[in-house]
Amino acid sequence: MTITFHDRWIASPGGRLFTRTWEPQQACCDTPIVLFHDSLGCVELWRSFPAALCAATQQRVIAYDRLGYGRSDPCTAPPLHTFIEDEPTTSFAALYAAFQLEQFIALGHSVGGGMAVHCAGHYAEQCTGLITIAAQSINERRTRQGIQDAQVAFEAPEQFTKLEKYHGDKARWVLHAWTDIWLHPAFESWSLRPALEQVDCPTLVLHGEKDEYGSHRQPEQIARYVHGPAHCEILPGIHHVPHREAEALVVHLASQFISRVKS
Length: 263
What we know:
The protein is 39% helix and 20% strand.
């Protein structure tokens, strides 16, 4: 099955954003799946998942680097504590306009899951389905401990070099954008609940049994507080990156969900 992709830079008020689109030979519908990356992520770090998802669903898949990440332009200012709820009106708003999206399915990993939730609520008439993978709904002790452990790991030059491979000179900013906000005392009370209550579309919630950044409370709250129909799957033996650790399983669950959304 032939899947093609093409890259495109789009304009945003803060600078250019890098996007990549995967296309099947003949799309079954004109509802693309938009991917929202995690705190250290970018288009390249989705690896083979977008192409596999495109092949399984026969739908366009669009991924983008938020401002300051991957191949997008640098961001000099540190992110605001409202950066998750701001996504529908910042980087995603630029993508939404550039691609002239009439309908879309939002799929987000980790903090990208929270952004996908906000976009699903903000664009309620256009978002036909929501998938979260290892998303946080609260900032619990386990979340902060996982970030602190990662912070220590990135002090090793070889670990930081891996980050530079994908973010270049922006790597230090990317790391601090993650750790400084989530570990800030003022962010401990952060909750996704108000955004969840704005979501009316069907929702699939995927979470690894051994996720080091969040207990089962995270997916359970997402499934509980969205207003549309929701299904939660705890994936046995899986950690924080299910689409890499068990790509075939995640693609299968996502494509089954998307088939139900279309029917």
